[in-house]
Amino acid sequence: MRCMSLNNTSAEEIVLLRRKANLIRQHVLRMTFAAGSGHPGGSLSYADILAALYFKLMNHRPADPAWEDRDRLVLSKGHAAPAYYAALSESGYFPVSELLELRKLGSRLQGHPSRAKTPGVEMSTGSLGQGLSVANGMALAARLDRRSYRVFCLCGDGEMQSGQIWEAAMLGAHYKLDHVTAFLDRNRLQIDGPTETIMAIEPLAKKWDAFGWNVIEIDGHDMKQIIDACDKAKLVKGKPTMIIAHTIKGKGVSFMENSIAFHGKAPNEEELKLGLKELGENP
Amino acid sequence: MKWTYASQRKEYGRALVEIGQSRSDVVVLDADLSSSTRTSDFAKKFPERFFNCGIAEQDMMGTAAGLAASGKMVFASSFAVFATGRCWDQIRQSICYPNFNVKIVASHAGITVGGDGASHQTAEDIALMRTLPNMTVIVPADALETYKAVKAVLDRPGPCYIRLGRVDFPVINSPDSPFRIGIANVMQEGDDVSLIGCGQMVALCLDAAEELHKRGVSAQVVNMSTIKPLDEITLHNAIKRTGCIVTAEEHNVLTGLGSAVGLYAAEHGDCIIRRVGIPDAFGESGESEELMVKYGLTSARIVETAEEAIRRRQ
Question: What ipTM, to 2 d.p.?
Answer without folding.
Answer: 0.95
